[in-house]
Specification:
Elements (H helix, E strand, L loop, with lengths): L1 E2 L6 E12 L5 E11 L3 E2 L4 H10 L2 E2 L1 H16 L3 E10 H5 L9 E8 L4 H12 L4
Parallel strand pairs: 2-5
Antiparallel strand pairs: 1-4, 2-3, 3-6, 6-7
Length: 132
């Protein structure tokens, strides 16, 4: 971790994730998009995907995964705000029951400055863009 005096938004998007549904012991997979607004501490960019990996590499539900990633960043960096959006396909929906092959589940969590409509909108616009 580094001490800095910045207030810009840091966004790491399209982080691949693979997990196992704790209800059905079947995979779910997709992408996580994570942002935070530093309040003095920043972290190396590679640490954000590692946080996603740590929490997704266990029996999990997408809703909890979203919150755990957010809370880890919040605890560690104490930022002005944190946002996490996860989009995932669930094999339990594709293989069992309703058999919906193209459905995607989206979960989101926002804290701090991301409760502000303008800040949240900026984040959501950035994760939708195709800029690489």
């Amino acid at each position: 971790m580094f001490e800095e005096d910045h207030n810009e938004m840091v966004v790491v998007k399209d982080i691949e994730l693979y997990s196992l549904c704790e209800h059905h012991i079947l995979p779910f997979f997709g992408k996580a998009h994570v942002a935070y607004i530093p309040s003095g501490k920043i972290v190396g960019l590679s640490k954000i995907p590692r946080i996603v990996d740590v929490y997704s590499r266990r029996l999990q539900v997408q809703e909890r995964l979203t919150t755990e990633v957010l809370e880890c960043i919040e605890r560690t960096l104490n930022p002005l705000g944190v946002a996490v959006v996860i989009e995932a396909a669930h094999m339990c929906m594709m293989m069992r029951g309703v058999q919906k092959q193209n459905s995607v589940t989206t979960t989101s969590a926002f804290r701090g400055e991301f409760k502000n409509v303008e800040t949240r909108h900026e984040f959501l616009t950035l994760i939708k863009s195709n800029l690489r």
